[in-house]
Amino acid sequence: MLLPMPMDMPFLLRFALEGLASMDTAHCRQILVIPDGNGEDGGAALRDVVSEFTDPRIQFVEIGPKDRLVSRKLGVSGSHWMTIVKGASCATAQYIFLHDSDSFFLDAEFLEQQYRQCVEGGLYTLGVESRWDPSFTEIGYSLPGTWELMFSNRWIRSRLPGNAKAMLHQTPHGPIMFDTLLYAQYLDFKSGKIRVAEGANRIVHFSATIITYREFRRRTGKCVADMLFRILFLALLETVVPAQKGRLLPAVEELAKGLTDASRPVHYRVEGIDQDYAEFRGMIDQLCGAPIIKGARADRLRELLVPFDTHFAAALENAKSGERVAKLREHGLG
Fold this sequence. Notes:
Number of domains: 2
CATH architecture of the largest domain: Alpha-Beta Complex
Helix content: 40-55%
CATH class of the largest domain: Alpha Beta
Number of strands: 13
CATH superfamily of the largest domain: Spore Coat Polysaccharide Biosynthesis Protein SpsA, Chain A
Radius of gyration: 20 Å
Distance between the termini: 35 Å
CATH topology of the largest domain: Spore Coat Polysaccharide Biosynthesis Protein SpsA, Chain A
Number of helices: 15
Strand content: 5-15%
Largest sheet: 4 strands, mixed
Strand order of the largest sheet: 4-7-6-10
């Protein structure tokens, strides 16, 4: 299990480790926590979270000055690539599962089922959802997205480091811009060992959470619109899975004041935001069934959202499926 973690968001590591504790991980040998290099504390906050858990499989992987330089120089994609390279070099298992810090498992058996499918099929990679990029769909390549991807340790070592990096490649299909791990999967797609799991998606992925939080911190002191409700999402999680050292996000009750007052530090007075809330609320309903949340925590989430549900009642009643918000915005603030 590979957990690339934002150094400036240690609360996400707590959610991830609690989530794993509620899963069947019978075949999991290691839980590797790898800081992304975007922080000033050298990973101290992440180490503090690791120390709260007693699972002996949890290991904090130190990154050196060169790793931090790569992360900062190449940005988000370089940081992601660096954590995968570092993780693969430390992993000892046959397969590695790449867990996004803003994804949540909906099925306690999910990891073991993915593992069995990989082993039985001798797969190189197994994802939960295909990439929607026209560059791939137009040529009939159903490449798994990197979120919640399980991949062969031997395979990834054969393709690292260059073929896993996010960059433009010249291909028989013309020039294509590849995200992290996609070019390696493109090269081996015709082997039949690059697959997307069939059936209902058993995760809920609050995409753009990390970049939205960082943008929120960057704009400290300024009024922002929480367009994708990711600040609300993190505030909800901080309430139901509290940290030992206090809050980093506004209280949900404070955020609710922004439903009617656009002068609040965080507000929701934006035209067209109703449909975004309906989509977000549907994701929260899924999250309430997740092993880490269901029960008392789910009840508390729903209770906290009553002011928002009331405000957006018409949108919830007429909710329609629309374009994925991850396609439309770089981050979730207006």
